[in-house]
Amino acid sequence: MAARKKTAKKSGKATRAPRAAAAAAPAPRRAGQPAAAAAPIAFTKILVANRGEIACRVMRTCRRLGIATVAVYSDADAEALHVREADEAVRIGPAASVESYLKIDAILAACRKTGAQAVHPGYGFLSENAAFANALEQAGIVFIGPTMAAVAAMGDKIESKKLAQKAGVNMVPGHLAAIADADEAVEIARKVGYPVMIKASAGGGGKGMRIAHNDAEARDGFRSATSEAKSSFGDDRVFIEKFIEEPRHIEIQVLGDAHGNVIHLGERECSIQRRHQKVIEEAPSPFLDDKTRAAMGAQAVALAKAVDYRSAGTVEFIVDRKRNFYFLEMNTRLQVEHPVTEIVTGLDLVEWMIRVAAGERLPFRQQDIRLDGWAVEARVYAEDPFRNFLPSIGRLTRYVPPAGEGIRVDSGAYDGGEISMYYDPMIAKLIGSGATREAASDRLAAALDAYVVRGLNHNIPFLQALIRHPRFREGRLSTGFIAEEFRGGFKGAFVPADVRARLAVVAATVQHRIHVREASIGAQLAGHERVVPDGYVVGLDIDGDEPTEIRVAPGRAVDASGREIAVDSGWRVGDLLFRGTVDGVAMTVQVETAGTGLRLSHAGATLRASVLSPRVAELARLMPVKRPPDTSRFLLSPMPGLLKAVAVKLGQEVKAGEELCVVEAMKMENILRAERDGVIGKLHAAVGDSLAVDQKILEFV
Fold first, then answer.
1. Which parts of 335-456 fold into alpha helices (H)?
2. What pLDDT is attached to residue 544?
3. Can you tell me the distance from the alpha carbon of 423 to that of 417, in angstroms, rounded to the nearest whole number?
């Protein structure tokens, strides 16, 4: 186990990450909001037992408070941003989290080695592990979080529901005992009434959760949920509760101290989810009224007081269309979506977790808390929304996060950094804020346009489609939003005709400036000097879109009908972003060369633009079209991962929809099923094999 300090000799490697931008700091306090305490904190050094963006975010608050920080890292994270952000860093093991970030002994050894007085666990990993909190207490190290009793009580979803019931919190109908087997799962599901939710008792983050609408789905869901729960949490217990249809997921942020004071900081709407994983979060909720907000807050505080809660925590509720609300679970840690609460309350939740852990009393009361403005957060992930959101791994060949008024970026990524297969594929949390929900959403949409992520697939196009969706803008949300609005998966954002026309002008303008730059290069061969055409044929790869001829002149363009279009942009060759106005409309378009054409990204659409002179365009129409190879007889791995199970044998006949194999990626099990009837002709991979994207698994006759 090795420790590194910032004062140590630098390695000189080109991949060393820069410090995170100051733009990611919590929002300043506004009028009418409680003031933060100015008193010094007892801790002088804190170890952050986590990685990625949350480790960086905790370290920023510590730096502001004058507290030294210690990072821990696995072999895969030796060059990670959180390691560079810390004052000291300690290696704790190999890449796999079970051999590093989940090793309690390694974390304790790092504390002893560096003299850290306290540990902030972030979220995930050991953040809700009572054994970890107990081990720290035994070692005389402060756990920056709630008491062991609260962690244990709320960490078990079955027991937490029993405690909530005793505290007078509204409950979802269900069966709170652990389910023994698939037969019992079916029996209980019938009693509760379909649809039901099968949930891991020790679960979180959408893992170990399945919805069942009938007996067959209950059996399959029990098997999948228990297997996934055991793999993710080391605990295969599951329970069943009624699935509330058209539900909204709304949570209440609570904050308590060791002196019996507990308050809530309002709500967060987290209804936009995919596979039970939150995608868009906002504060406040566009759905709650003052009466419901007060009632939910009161029940959240009652539950927190019932377990003597100290620190920041979240009580999650499911809310139906009539604003009836029911307890889901309590998370005894900082939530991924905490920035939106920080922005509308003006409070730094990490600071107050640290102050409470140091024994300080909360200096404000419930009546002091005011929600000011609006904040909307989008989770930027390394995943391919066009391939059913399969994880994407690799190096960030270009990474330029957006900045500006009302924009906050919490990230552990950097230009040249790597997204590893071993951990959650989150790249960043992007937050837009403003006086109103519309203003916050507009800022977030504009920031997504300017977010440059290259080298791997990402979900920014999908986030754009969500933020700009009319139903989202109206606030008509539910946890079924994505399934209902993107049936059959995400196919890309719709590009209206007027936007297509402006993008064609952008493409022509960019290509023209590239040609002007090339023509200015000296020492060109006489008689073969580069000629700058003033006319271009622009084709966008959109079904039904016809190439259009555009002539370019300084400050304007002329389309095929002869209409002049004003173009005002300072774009120069090499710029990643085309910023300016086209036909009077402000636009931010990402520009990237792609072979002989351009790739343009704007408003959730990424389009390939062919920009040719009229003569070359005429010749191009005569060229044959290259067709992709036929891979229909193969089952290809849709993601990098581990082949966990193969359900078929050589020569076996299978029917459409029948399970073929299970691929595990990013701690999630993915069942691959037959798309048609067939016979298994060859197995190309075996259980335990590591698979690459599009690697052959099996072949049909």
1. 338-345, 349-357, 437-449
2. 66
3. 14
Q: Which two tokens stand for residue 558?
A: 């002329």
Task: For 507-584, list the strands marked E by DSSP.
Answer: 535-540, 548-553, 556-558, 564-569, 577-582
What is the rounded CA–CA span in Å between residue 332 and residue 326?
18
Query: CB-based burial of residue 286 (10 Å sphere; 0-12 exposed, 13-18 middle, 19+ buried)?
Result: middle
Instruction: Check: CB of residue 427 under 8 Å from CB of residue 398.
Output: no
Q: What is the C-alpha separation between 41 and 24, in angstroms, rounded? A: 22
Six-digit token string for 646: 């193969």
CA nearest neighbour of 188 among 199, 178, 198, 175: 175
Average pLDDT over residues 71-77: 97
Answer yes or no: are the C-beta atoms of 348 and 36 closer than 8 Å: yes
Q: What's the chain's Rg over C-alpha atoms? A: 27
**Per-residue pLDDT band at 240 (split at 50, 70, 90):** very high
Nearest to 316, CA basis, from 375, 248, 371, 260: 248
H/E stretch holding 470: helix 470-474
- Tell me the domains of the chain and their CATH numbers: 3-144 (3.40.50.20), 156-171+246-372 (3.30.470.20), 173-242 (3.30.1490.20), 373-483 (3.30.470.20), 497-521+530-620 (3.30.700.30), 634-700 (2.40.50.100)
- Whether the link from the prior residue into 629 is cis, omega within 30° of 0, is no
* 329 part of the active site: yes
pLDDT by residue (tens digit) across 454-477? 999 999 999 999 999 999 999 999
Report the Cα 263 to chain-centroid distance in Å.
Answer: 28
- Cα–Cα distance list, 287 to 103, 145, 247 (Å): 42, 30, 12
Neighbour tally for 195: CB within 10 Å: 16
C-beta atoms surrounding 442 within 10 Å: 18
- Among residues 228, 267, 329, 351, the one annotated as catalytic is 329
CA 241 remoteness from chain centre = 27
Token pair 């916050």 in the structure block, residue: 440
State the helix-helix crossing angle for 148-155 and 130-138, rounded to 10 degrees: 170
